[in-house]
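Private note to self, pasted from the team thread so I don't lose it. Backbone tokens:
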């Protein structure tokens, strides 16, 4: 007879997996992906080290899951703010969140990582660009922006955000970054 998990065992499995993810995210937020050590995550989550591998095939898989969960939250926040408040507030809010959590932002944006996380990083840059391109296309259609390629404009904004917010240039005020991005696409800041 094949083993079938009960609702109780499935709930315990989900709770343990969630605890591992929370602990891993906390490690990344505090020390970047370099701080993502499986034994430390297991300790923080209150599980055995081997239990981490029951939920994730490898440390890289855990890193990708953490990266993807945090990044999806950021993409969703960008989309929500774009829809509710517009382009400038969405960009300003993104910059403020990144600067409020610089270790996590650096981990997501530029920390050297393995190929699995780098592939996820590229997917999420594309997701940001897609959300921004749709919004920019709407602004163009309403005559609020000059005619231009929305995808190119969005890719430029994504690049500018990633470079300017935590780059080697210090931490400029979010308004300066927003002003630059809006000017670049022909909007009035």
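Design output:
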């Amino acid at each position: 007879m094949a083993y079938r998990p009960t609702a109780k065992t499935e709930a315990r499995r989900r709770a343990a997996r969630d605890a591992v993810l929370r602990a891993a995210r906390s490690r990344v937020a505090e020390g970047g992906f370099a701080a993502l050590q499986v034994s430390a995550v297991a300790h923080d989550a209150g599980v055995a080290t081997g239990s981490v591998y029951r939920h994730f095939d490898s440390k890289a898989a855990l890193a990708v899951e953490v990266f993807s969960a945090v990044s999806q939250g950021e993409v969703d926040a960008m989309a929500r703010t774009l829809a509710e408040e517009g382009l400038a507030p969405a960009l300003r809010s993104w910059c403020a969140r990144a600067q409020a959590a610089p270790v996590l932002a650096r981990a997501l944006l530029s920390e050297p990582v393995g190929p699995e996380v780098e592939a996820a990083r590229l997917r999420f840059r594309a997701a940001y660009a897609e959300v921004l391109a749709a919004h920019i296309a709407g602004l163009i259609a309403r005559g609020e922006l000059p005619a231009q390629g929305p995808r190119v404009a969005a890719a430029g904004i994504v690049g500018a955000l990633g470079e300017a917010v935590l780059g080697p240039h210090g931490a400029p005020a979010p308004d300066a970054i927003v002003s630059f991005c809006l000017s670049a696409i022909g909007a009035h800041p």
